[in-house]
Sequence to fold (247 residues):
Amino acid sequence: MSRKFCVGGNWKMNGNKAEIAEICKGLTAGPLDPNTEVVVGCPSPYLSYARGLLPATIGVAGQNCYKVAKGAFTGEVSPAMLKDIGADWVIIGHSERRQIFNESDELIAEKTAHALAEGLKVIACIGETLQEREAGQTEAVVFRQTKALANAIKDWTNVVVAYEPVWAIGTGKTATPQQAQEVHAALRKWFTDNVSAAVSASVRIQYGGSVTAANCKELASQPDIDGFLVGGASLKPEFVQIVNAKQ
Fold:
């Protein structure tokens, strides 16, 4: 089964109206590979602004959401709110949410299930720290994180998994294409063994972690890498080259 390449840009807590207008202008001009699905993760205050500037072919994602529709949860945003202002995706479980805000596997799974039930598409992030990798725990960690998701997800159609080795995010260190491919292939086998062969064949697994215009083509050539979740480089003009990595 051919899986449509999917590239997400995670702007994190960056940007103002002028900067976002510039980024959107560059993405609109492209040209972007029409065979690649493109999504940008925008800070909440600017979601509707970005949506208004981008063509409909580019998806807009919230960077987080809560696990219920509404209520006394000061500072949180619900999937229904994201949808209401034009977002069609949400990024859940990014390593920064796990590490800095102590979000558990279970909470991330609950958020994912609720976002899917509300009609959003989800980029669900997993990945190991440097200490875990050096201790030989990479597979144990990513399988544990994926199992929590699998316990909550009935239909994987609208889920993209983003494998992001924490040690490679914003550090300039990148997993080699071979290292990334090894983990992606192991995840694909995990899906075959624990979910179904059909889900394993169809679910898209992105790589995230210091992806740049310089390394994207070699990473994109790996058989089990189905796209990228890009941090810092998604704020720069080179993001267009990363989107076009398969060309």
User: Anything to note?
Assistant: Residues 181 and 223 are 7 Å apart (CA to CA). The longest strand covers residues 121-126. The chain has a mean pLDDT of 96. The two ends are 19 Å apart (CA to CA).
